Amino acid sequence: MDKVFNRLRNLDAYPKVNEDFYSRTLAGGVVTVVSAAVMLFLFFSELNLYLYTVTESTLLVDTSRGDTLHINFDVTFPAVRCSILSLDAMDISGEQHLDIRHNIVKKRIDANGNVVEERKDGIGAPKIERPLQKHGGRLGHDEKYCGSCFGAEESDEHCCNSCEEVREAYRKKGWGLTNMDLIDQCQREGYVQRVKDEEGEGCNIQGSLEVNKVAGNFHFATGKSFLQSAIFLADLLALQDNHYNISHRINKLSFGHHFPGLVNPLDGVKWVQGPTHGMYQYFIKVVPTIYTDIRGRVIHSNQYSVTEHFKSSELGVAVPGVFFFYDISPIKVNFKEEHIPFLHFLTNICAIIGGVFTVAGIIDSSIYYGQRTIKKKMELGKYR
């Protein structure tokens, strides 16, 4: 057994030196203090880096199919009344959503930006005694109401019981209303008067859309849109004005849920209309993004880039409004939060300690032997 211990003793890479042979110097003490401070600084720097999460990004081809795109928006129009501001959406698959009212909130604002009224869009018309019937007479006793569509009926049983339903029937026919005061439903709902009451006001419109994940567009137009000869025009009724001021401020525009580090380039963007009128266009490239945090929680969202263009009405047909044309990138970005591996952290700590000790030892030895050399030269000079 003693032979085994002796062999292990001979393998000792750290031979011990008797304390009687130690020589401690002032320079060595200074080097020790400085090296200890450097080691502590590097240790805490490495510890902070280890505790801090690192986000790794990878690019993949997006192979998902049949998904939907969630759009969140909050836009303010200082010079467009809420009653004539409409939201439409369509995509290249042919799906259209005109005059969207679901999940939409409109806020009337005055010239100073103060909220006058807030209401969800699509609220029904007020009830009125004995409205005009489809047959031309007034509603009789125990008679079910069926309002006239004023020539835009799709069938004999088709009824238009509100001003919006009349406008919708005309939109489907591709017609434009010329005088809303002649429409009984609009007259009893006070639609024209409501629009006139909002003169000089602006509108803040906010909400969300759920659309197909294909290229398309959504837009805020001044009036109820209808499709005619494949061109979207504005049914601005008797209140038609080709010189609407579409100055606007985009308070928020995002495609999907928020995740750490997400930057939406259109948030806070403001545009003021000049002397010419027309439509303002945003061309958006949407990049699907998946974010996985350190706890493994996955967030499906999107980033986007954008370019802008103003199309003047002097160059042709340009409906007053703000249009957002979006396209989907085929490349998907994956973000994943990660910690530096513990073994990597341990390796760096050992490297710090060993490296500082080695460098400090070299410096201390250089100082020590330099001092000895100078001392010897001085002693030799005395003897001579």
Automatic annotation (TrEMBL):
Taxonomy, superkingdom: Eukaryota
Transmembrane spans: 21-44, 342-369
Keywords associated with the record: Membrane, Transmembrane, Transmembrane helix
Gene Ontology cellular component list: COPII-coated ER to Golgi transport vesicle; endoplasmic reticulum; membrane
Domain Endoplasmic reticulum vesicle transporter C-terminal positions: 149-364
Domain Endoplasmic reticulum vesicle transporter N-terminal intervals: 8-97
Entry keyword annotation includes Membrane: yes
Cell compartments where the protein resides: Membrane
Protein name as annotated: Endoplasmic reticulum-Golgi intermediate compartment protein 3
